[in-house]
Amino acid sequence: MNILQELLKWLKNHSLKWKTLTTTILLILLVMMFILIFLYNDSNRALLDQGKIILQNEAEKSRVDADYKLNSVEDLGFRMIQDEQFGSFLSRYSAEENFSQNPNTDFQITMVAEIRGRIAENSSIGSVEVFLEHDHFIISKEHYIHKEKVEKVLPKYQWLKKQNQLCLIIPFNIFLEKNDKSGWLKVNIDPQTIFHITNDQPEGNRIRVLDNKDSLLYENMPDAAAPSKLPKSCSESIIDQNLIVCTEKLSNGWKVLNFVSTKQYELKFINVLRRLLPIMFAILLLGSLFTYLISLWLVNPIVKLSKHIKAQNRLELPQKASVYSNDEVGDLAKSYNQLVEDMDELFTKKQLEEKGRHEAEISAFQSQIQPHFLYNTLAIIRWSAKKRDTPQVLKLVTDLSRYYRLVLAKGKNFASLKDELDLVYYYLEIQKVRFSDQLEAEIVIDPEIESENYYVLHRILQPLVENSLEHGIFPQGKGKIYVKVNQDETYLYLSVIDDGIGASPEIVSEINQGSFEPREESGFSLVCIIQTLKSYYQDQVKVTFESIQGEGTIIEIRLKKRIIKR
């Protein structure tokens, strides 16, 4: 579960392409897993069916072979007791006459070779035993044994299980004419020679033989390997306890159960996986190609639309999406492009309205020529004329004329930075005459700045200088003012610095946060110039106001060079 959660978290933070690719591959792997399991189970079922058929065929062959061998054993036993030579021996034995030799010697001379010849006729027979009234003869291919003690068993025709052998009992009368004495023939056979596994049967095949009473006669497996339960009927092959079982019935009524472990017909999963690995690899390649086609037809157009919408959310100018298709994505792109056209039209209309409003604000701001400055300057000229200070009168008239020529600026809303600095210079020169030794002023400009190549809003510096004089320096009687212009790679910095009385922290905070409301003592020019700059330059300008009461004030305008350079 943790792996699945991590995968879902990873997909959530990635693009639609990765989501599509990962989902497709996971779906393909899931389908291949189901196909692999289905093929594995189906192959196992087919192999089990094949094993069932093989076991049935081999069980039928074994049944025919076992019937033939059992019948041949019974036939050999009957032929043996009906043999003329054996009958002659029984006559001598039953007559109770004195043998010229004892019965053991007589049997050994007359019958052992004959019986060994019959044993040689049938490879299933291990030995033959003859039981008479007082004698027990045991004959095999290699040995002959005579015993005088006879087993007391019921002399009837039957098959018996003796240890690891099967025994056929055939009774006969010792006295051919009297029934008061009898004997029997016992034929011992090795069950493995009758119930055996043929070469065609699978490895691990096992056999269990039951008689007519379902008693166990023979099985060719150790007890540890034998199943706990096996069917005793002659039904069709069944699968039970991981075994394939087939039951065949012999002509004598015996049941032969053939069974083999299902593991002999089970495929190893790793082998199936190795065989299907090339097919799985080919399916993955096809799935990747399919995912790529989906990306071309569906994901890429959606990604393009997403990029355009994100650009719009970043306040960038929206652009039409280059998506051309006749499906639902194409319809979505057409609707978006129509929306972009409508937005372009509204944006153009808004720009025109903003431009008109800005021009009106700038014109209103620049038209604020304070009459008292002109009156004060004319008063100084008149006073200098009375003193007959001709050089000073001439300088004042020249500075005043040049000042107003720059103020009027031929009705333009923009002026070069050089003209703006000249305007400040003439303004300060007039004020230094007016206030004599009370005012010191200095204009410092970076020598690498080509001031004539930068154009700014007209009269953005002079009102700031006037504000510093009126509300910073003059209230304390005297002071010094600096006008500095410097730059870095991106910005141009215009600063007005004074060592006047400064402003309170409340006013500084309100001005920097944009919540400042003009007060009579704060000066209308400062508020007006800040609002005008932000209204026109938007996020391309930053105005910083720093002031400490009793120490002075710094006003800095930061402008991006690329928008003011000509």
What report would you give on this structure?
By secondary structure, this protein is an alpha+beta fold. It folds into three domains: 252 residues, no CATH class; 92 residues, no CATH class; 184 residues, Heat Shock Protein 90 (2-Layer Sandwich). The chain contains 14 helices and 18 strands. Strands 3-2-1-6-5-4 form a six-stranded antiparallel sheet, with helices on one face. The protein has a five-stranded antiparallel sheet with strand order 8-7-11-10-9, with helices on one face. A five-stranded mixed sheet has the order 13-15-16-18-17. α6 runs parallel beside α7 and α8 runs antiparallel to α9. The protein is rod-shaped and about 195 Å long. It starts with a helix and ends with a helix. Keywords: Kinase, Membrane, Phosphoprotein, Transferase, Transmembrane, Transmembrane helix.
**Helix content range:** 40-55%
Would you count the extended β strands for me?
18
Rg over C-alpha atoms, rounded to the nearest angstrom:
62 Å
Please report the number of helical segments: 14
Q: Low-confidence parts, pLDDT < 50 over ≥5 residues?
A: 232-239
**Average pLDDT number:** 76
Q: Give the strand order of the largest sheet, numbering strands 1, 2, ... along the chain.
A: 3-2-1-6-5-4
How many structural units, i.e. domains? 3
Coarse shape = rod-shaped
Spatial separation of the terminal alpha carbons: 63 Å
Strand content: 15-25%
Which structural class do the helices and strands define? alpha+beta
The major sheet is characterized as: 6 strands, antiparallel
